[in-house]
Amino acid sequence: MNERRVVITGIGCITPLGNDLTTTWEGLKAGRSGIARITQLDPEPFDCKIAGEVKNFEADGYFGVPKDARRADRYVQFAVAASKMAVADSGLDVTAIDPRRFGVMVGSGIGGLATLEREHGTYLTKGPKRVSPFTIPMMISNIA
After folding, report:
1. pLDDT tens for each residue of 42-52
2. Domain coverage including residue 98
């Protein structure tokens, strides 16, 4: 077995406790919960009315072009932001590192559900020709 070292040099966080590492960590240390009544959609039709929602997140600052942020599903926006934070937190000069020896690890079980729901509604109300051509790329989990 080839035993190669992996070093975690930076961390980035977008969580219900905060949209950066410091706020998230302070919330954890203080024992705060990021769980609250759902505000980003009407929870009344559902049995569960609480969730851990990310609040006050603005994606534009993490993308070179604001249009790219709009074309990315929210989970991709979170991944891009957290990845950029992790690289910044590392303090490394990425231009001085062999790109084959540098990477960002992102975990995502499923993504693009907001896009799926929105475009399904578009399909039902306006027809298939009005569905965004970006629907599938916005839903691919490993695009993050």
Report:
1. 999 999 999 99
2. 21-143
